[in-house]
Amino acid sequence: KVKSNNLDVKVAESELETEEKGTEEESTRESDSNILDVSSDYPREKHVSIQRHLADLEKLADLKEDEKKTCPLCPEEKFKACYSHKLHRHLQNLHWKVSVEFEGYRMCICHLPCRPVKPNLVGDQTLSKMGAHYHCIICSATITRRTDMIGHINRHVNKGETESRFITVPPPKSSYEVLKESATDVQVLPNYSTPHKTDSYFNPKMKLNRQLIFCALAVLAEERKPIECLDAFGATGIMGLQWAKHLRSSVKVTINDCNENSVTMIQENCHLNKMKVKLNTKEEDNDEAMGDGEENTDTIEVTKMDANVIMHLRSFDFIHLDPFGTSVNYLDSAFRNVRNLGIVSLTSTDTSSLYAKAQHVALRHYGCNIVRTEYYKELAARVVIAAVTRAAARCNKGIEVLLAVALEHFVLVVVRVLRGPSPADDSAKKIRYLIHCQWCEERIFQKEGNMVEENPYQQLPCDCHGSMPGKTAVVLGPLWSGALFNTGFLRRMLFEALQYGLDEAQPLLKTLVYEAECTTSKHFSTHSPYEETKQEECGVYIKTPNTYAESYLVHGKRKSDEVIRNAAKRQKSENSAEHPAFYYNIHRHSIKGMNMPKLNKFLKYLSKAGYRVSRTHFDPMGVRTNAPLAQFKTILMKYSTPTYTGGQAEGPLHLAEGVQAGEQVQADGKAEDAEFLEDDKSGVTAATFTKDYPTHCAAD
């Protein structure tokens, strides 16, 4: 009996021990599950395969010349220890080159036993099945294929999950580099000029673009104060800082960026320029928090959200869009809440598609069919304006083009918003197709109307279809067929550029004024244009002192709208002389074996023939004129001289005409040379042109 009692006690003790072990295991499981949940919510250290630079991987291996080291991302069974030079090649070729990049980090391929293995595999089978994989920087998932990893990251981005759950260490402040532009300091990373390798992208070549946008904003700030302006893609915040630093209380600047590192960089740059910062990362309307008064002077609001979101939530007077590549994805939200008579400016850097190098991309993004022509830069500007017009019309808004610039690196378009269905209809009617002859480069916009013509070649002034076999013309578009410039606005932009000392923008703005007026006149006044140019802008009401219209604005919105509408009707009748569309390149239509006249003399000959003529910023050797191509070539042939006097069998008529033209030029010679002597002394030659735009108009 005693033995049986002892056995019962031992059995009871063993049962208690097993129960205690079970409860401990359950508690450890619960704690493990809690730890997993916490780790999924809170940041944790990133995996060793996620690094910024190749040197960071080498630091993990602790490379030394005289010692053998193992690879930090491979098990010893797969890659044995070796010397530093061999391990460096292994890390570079096997891990780094096949990595996946995201926000400055590289997710290198990993061969460590991180993935779970099937339980039925034993021995060497487990080693063979534990293949290479990647660790996601956002959700810590392990994925085997590189293409699947890229798709996995893209799905995170589409869902808006771009914040890493790992602990990211910011780069040391000693690596920052401080740059200065227009009395504004910005600090950037050493690789600031490469957009795919840094969050603080800064392009020094876009200085001219920033100065033009600043001049447009300064003109708007003179019309009404204060105005709310938005830089939708801040990056370093250089543009918004220039607005706030120079225009002060006239503007309320909001700088937005969806990247957290860029937002941090913008805040630091604001403190560097002694500006107050108001941070807003919530996707809600905070107009009440801004308030009015002196407390917002020199205060910049920095937001962290998607550009489409902030433009849907808030209203602005001035919006600038400068994304990577095309900006068509943001046009609908930009025109949704922009205020009446506000300004939307956009910079498109997808020049490969706009300049007809990738025509299928232009068709996909802009819905336009284009080919490479001699006037391809102006064609690109009209393609962008057509997309802007359609986006504005969908929001019952019309546009007035104030400025269109196409240079080597970008296409800049600045438009004013006119609210209402009538301006939207008027703007939409200016989108038309273009007929372009591929033989002689003649072009003309199709006639308005929906009726199908039997022979559309009859609209072209040339006769290439009758003399050449096959189809000689193509239809391009749809394109903007209206004006590209507003003379009054450009004059006021030039005045602001002179006032703030923007040296790079002044010669280009002078050229644009002459191009908008289609004149070669060198007489230009630099006094304030706000009083004399009130009637020059079509459809725009400008506040000027001592005007009779201001007395009507106090009676209410309807009365002010009537004043603006009547002024627009009056200005449309007064501004009937619009600059001609497109231009001709004088070298493209030169005659073989003949010396062309100097470009400025040729402009004078065209003007004497009764045509409007000017130079263009799109092409240093381009001529904007309303003369048909046949007359253009005739005048060019008339004033060209032969390169030699010895006759040949080919083209005797052309040489004879050239000789007669040369004798006529010598007969007229002295009087005409005396007229152009001053121009030649002042450097008005083709050599004074820069690579992107002419600067000969800078001489007053």
UniProtKB/TrEMBL annotation:
A GO biological process held by the record: tRNA N2-guanine methylation
Tree of life domain: Eukaryota
Catalytic activity: guanosine(27) in tRNA(Tyr) + 2 S-adenosyl-L-methionine = N(2)-dimethylguanosine(27) in tRNA(Tyr) + 2 S-adenosyl-L-homocysteine + 2 H(+)
Residue ranges of the region described as Disordered: 1-38
Keywords associated with the record: Isopeptide bond, Metal-binding, Methyltransferase, Nucleus, Phosphoprotein, RNA-binding, S-adenosyl-L-methionine, Transferase, tRNA processing, tRNA-binding, Ubl conjugation, Zinc, Zinc-finger
UniProt xrefs under PROSITE patterns: SAM_MT_TRM1, ZINC_FINGER_C2H2_1
Cell location: Nucleus, Nucleolus
The C2H2-type domain, residue ranges: 136-156
Bias (Basic and acidic residues): 19-32
Gene3D superfamilies (alphabetical): N2,N2-dimethylguanosine tRNA methyltransferase, C-terminal domain, Vaccinia Virus protein VP39
Entry's Gene Ontology cellular component terms: nucleolus
GO function term, MF aspect, one: zinc ion binding
InterPro entries: SAM-dependent_MTases_sf, Trm1, tRNA_met_Trm1_C, Znf_C2H2_type
Family: Belongs to the class I-like SAM-binding methyltransferase superfamily. Trm1 family.
Protein name listed in UniProt: tRNA (guanine(27)-N(2))-dimethyltransferase
Protein source organism: Oceanodroma tethys (Wedge-rumped storm-petrel)
Gene (UniProt): Trmt1l
